[in-house]
From TrEMBL:
It comes from Streptomyces alkaliterrae. Its EC number is 2.8.1.6. It comes from the Bacteria. Residues 47-277 form the Radical SAM core domain. This is Biotin synthase. It holds the Pfam family Radical_SAM. Residues 356-407 are annotated as: Disordered.
């Protein structure tokens, strides 16, 4: 296919595809799926080999958020039966982080629900970062605390944070459909503040909220223009008790096309397979490793992922290897820029974390080839309809519980 040859050539040269080319990837047929994965896989291997970086989420503060991000189980008015707790103590967070590091994670993501941190919250998180770095000097720490105020990014950097996550989540045109308590521009500003303070920026999206292909391409091009070092690609986890509970819009094939599109648009950026991979990719998860070079190990903020050992087995079985602590994730041309403490690399991207985080219109948007089909239920082996909602398991282990974390 000429399209794929063009995209591979561009990806290997770190050249931006056109909008039309990105849209065309999302419109390819299931018959062409393996060709699309193979093509984007060439670009992935050029810049990241067969390495998979493991990241580990620690939910420092869960639930009771005053914001109304429709995708989020922690939102204002959420009826989701999630764990709710206030700030973990530094030693509790460090213990949870330690489990992730022992499981092979080289980055720990410290996430807190809320619009954004107070200065006192920044102090708390700074103490937590110190506690983690005392025990694991080499681990990368990423903070994800919501919208930042002046000076807070620099304080986090000074406390030892390596990175800051704040997702754009969806296109600017549709942002008002998923959240009314803050704006798309607020999110852009926070990513820019993190970059200006010398933090490695992490910013991504959530697919499956009813958006069109055009929206997906818009947000990925916006991310590329922002130029974060890592781009988490979340697939909506439709939590019961949230406005998007019925939005089972994705197919595994469509999710893989989205990941391939992101890889072509951001060829040399850490593309992270994030929240929703188990429930939306299901048995097709291993193919996603040919596209993403980074995943979360274990559980998400408020939902459970597959067992950490199953993550490691999947990586090994698919012929990939866990990236070691001593290995540099980013290609040299980007890593050098990142270590110099300035933004701008070769590519050009809080679900506030990994839970899929933040909503939208119903499936089947005109022009959207994010395949909308009747996926709310399917026949199980016994002939009993299997409800998709049964795939979402609320987290009942790790931080906020007495049960050991999954790592
Ligand atoms: S995504 Fe973040 S800001 Fe939005 S409701 Fe959830 S915790 Fe609050």
């Amino acid at each position: 296919m000429d399209l794929l040859k063009t995209l591979v050539d561009k990806g290997l040269r770190r050249e931006l595809p056109t909008r039309e080319e990105a849209l065309a990837v999302l419109s390819t047929s299931d018959d062409d799926l393996l060709d699309v994965v193979a093509a984007a896989g060439k670009v992935r291997r050029k810049w990241f080999g067969r390495r998979v970086k493991l990241n580990y989420l620690v939910n420092l503060k869960s639930g009771l958020c005053p914001e109304d991000c429709s995708y989020c189980s922690q939102r204002l008015g959420s009826k989701a039966d999630i764990l709710k707790y206030t700030w973990l103590k530094p030693e509790q967070a460090a213990a949870a982080a330690g489990a992730g590091v022992a499981g092979g994670a080289k980055r720990v993501c410290l996430v807190a629900s809320g619009r954004g941190p107070t200065d006192r919250d920044v102090d708390r998180v700074s103490q937590t970062i110190s506690a983690i770095k005392e025990q694991h000097a080499d681990v990368e720490v990423c903070a994800c605390l919501g919208l930042l105020s002046d000076g807070q990014a620099a304080r986090l950097r000074d406390a030892g944070a390596d990175a800051y996550n704040h997702n754009l989540n969806t296109s600017e045109a549709t942002y008002g459909d998923i959240c009314t308590t803050h704006e798309y521009a607020d999110r852009v500003s926070t990513v820019q503040q993190a970059q200006a303070a010398g933090l490695s920026a992490c910013s991504g999206l959530i697919a499956g909220m009813g958006e069109s292909d055009e929206d997906l391409v818009d947000v990925v091009f916006a991310l590329r223009a922002l130029d974060p070092d890592s781009v988490p690609v979340n697939f909506l986890i439709p939590f019961e008790g949230t406005p998007l509970a019925a939005e089972w819009n994705l197919t595994p094939q469509g999710a893989l096309r989205i990941l391939a599109m992101v890889r072509f648009v951001c060829p040399d950026v850490e593309v992270r397979l994030a929240g929703g991979r188990e429930v939306q990719l299901r048995s097709m998860q291993p193919l996603a490793l040919h596209l993403a070079n980074s995943i979360f190990l274990g559980d998400y903020l408020t939902s459970e992922g597959q067992a950490g050992q199953a993550d490691l087995d999947m990586i090994a079985d698919a012929g990939f290897e866990v990236e070691g602590a001593g290995e540099t994730t980013l290609p040299t041309h980007r890593a050098d820029v990142a270590s110099a403490g300035c933004g701008g690399g070769g590519c050009g991207p809080c679900g506030d974390g990994g839970d899929g985080g933040d909503k939208m219109a119903a499936a089947g948007d005109e022009g959207g080839s994010v395949e909308a089909r009747d996926v709310e239920a399917e026949e199980g082996a016994s002939g009993t309809p299997r409800q998709r909602s049964e795939l979402v398991t609320v987290r009942r282990r790790g931080p906020g519980t007495e049960v050991p974390p999954n790592a």
